[in-house]
Amino acid sequence: MAPTVVGEAEYTHRTTLRTVNRPVRDRLRYVVFGAGAIGGVVGGRLCQAGLDVTLIARGAHLAAMQARGLRLFPNVYAVSVACPTSHLEPGVVQAWSTPVTGLLDIGRYPTGIDQVCTAVAADFRAATFSSYPDAAIHRWKNRKLLTNLGNAIEAVCGPHERQGQLGDMILAEGEAVLDAAGLEAATAQEDLARRADLLQRGQIAGRTRPGGSSWQSLRRGTGDIETDYLNGEIVLLGRIHGVPTPANALLQRLARELDTTSAAPGAIPAATILERLGRSST
Questions:
Q1: Tell me: domain 77-280, CATH 1.10.1040.10, correct?
Q2: Please, which residues bridge with residue 133 across strands?
Q3: What is the mean pLDDT of residues 215-221?
Q4: Angle at 93 between CA 89 and CA 99, to 5 degrees
């Protein structure tokens, strides 16, 4: 039986985990600075192993751990999300797809399905989504990563530049990186077949969706942008596996520069980026 994990407040940004029914081994103490997804799991597992662990956290997550302890879940589920939406003003979110709101396929991570997957998929379908359990959901998550590499082009160059030579370059780099890393992705043909006629661009008040999620982040001036976790993931994996990723690296950097300077989306033409990439390759 797994030991009970409790939270003990020590000061404003700290909570200490101790096992109730196991002694602390040799009094060695671990401090995890940043108890988010990874830090929280590592710290929780160390605590379950009978070790003295202090987690550094903040905000609501800190308060919840102090009040209820840290919960670890035996099963992890992944959802592949294709859902054209927008959020450009406080209190307003918009869904642009028809005839369904989006695709939300679900599976156990890293592989497998169970009754929970079946039940969640049924709930998603009842809520106007198309959803099916998929035992190899990681393939679809990897395809979504490849698809979302184009978000950086929308943010930096504008939505009208997403399809073209620059888009082909970042996709080719992404596919080469995943192949080198041994990460299987659903094919473009599979993705097209899954979307079929389910994700059709609709209109709201006579307007179409102005841009994707990265474009929206720049438009709202949030001070944060997802490209570090999309194009940046490809760049990181490229470094690890020896695959050049110049187009993704440049778009990642330009998107971050536009974000930190509060620039408007679409500030740099794709032709300018292609020219810079051409110069850097000679």
A1: yes
A2: 106
A3: 95
A4: 145
Return the SS3 of 214. Answer: helix
Closest CA to 120 of 78, 71, 73: 78
Tokens representing 254 are 């330009």
Residue 258 parent element (H or E): helix 246-260
Positive or negative, the CA dihedral 122, 123, 125, 129 is: negative
How far apart, in whole angstroms, are the C-alpha atoms of residue 102 and residue 110?
22
**How far is CA 236 from each of CA 87, 222, 245, 249, 266, rounded to the nearest angstrom?**
29, 24, 9, 9, 25
Kindly give the pairing relationship between strand 85-89 and strand 92-95.
antiparallel
Task: Check if the beta carbon of residue 159 is closer than 8 Å to that of residue 210.
Answer: yes
Please state, in angstroms and as integers, the Cα–Cα distance from residue 86 to each residue in 83, 144, 210, 227, 277, following that order: 10, 18, 8, 17, 31
Domain boundaries, the chain: 5-68, 77-280
Q: For residue range 104-140, what is the model confidence (pLDDT) as tens digits?
A: 999 998 899 999 999 999 999 999 999 999 999 999 9
CA separation, residue 54 to residues 23, 34, 62, 92, 171 (Å): 16, 10, 12, 39, 42
Please say whether the beta carbons of 281 and 247 come within 8 A. Answer: no
Looking at the DSSP assignment, which residues form a beta bridge with residue 163?
none
Q: What is the pLDDT of residue 217?
A: 94
Comparing 56-70, 185-199, 227-241, which segment has the lowest mean pLDDT? Answer: 56-70
| Stated length of the chain | 282
Closest of 76, 77, 100, 115 to residue 194, by C-alpha: 100
Mean pLDDT, the chain, rounded, equals: 87
What is the pLDDT, as a whole number, of residue 282? 57
The single residue listed with the structure tokens 């192949």 is 179
Q: Are strands 77-82 and 103-108 parallel, antiparallel or unpaired?
A: antiparallel
- Two tokens, residue 34: 């940043």
Half-sphere exposure of 33 (CA within 13 A, CB side): 0
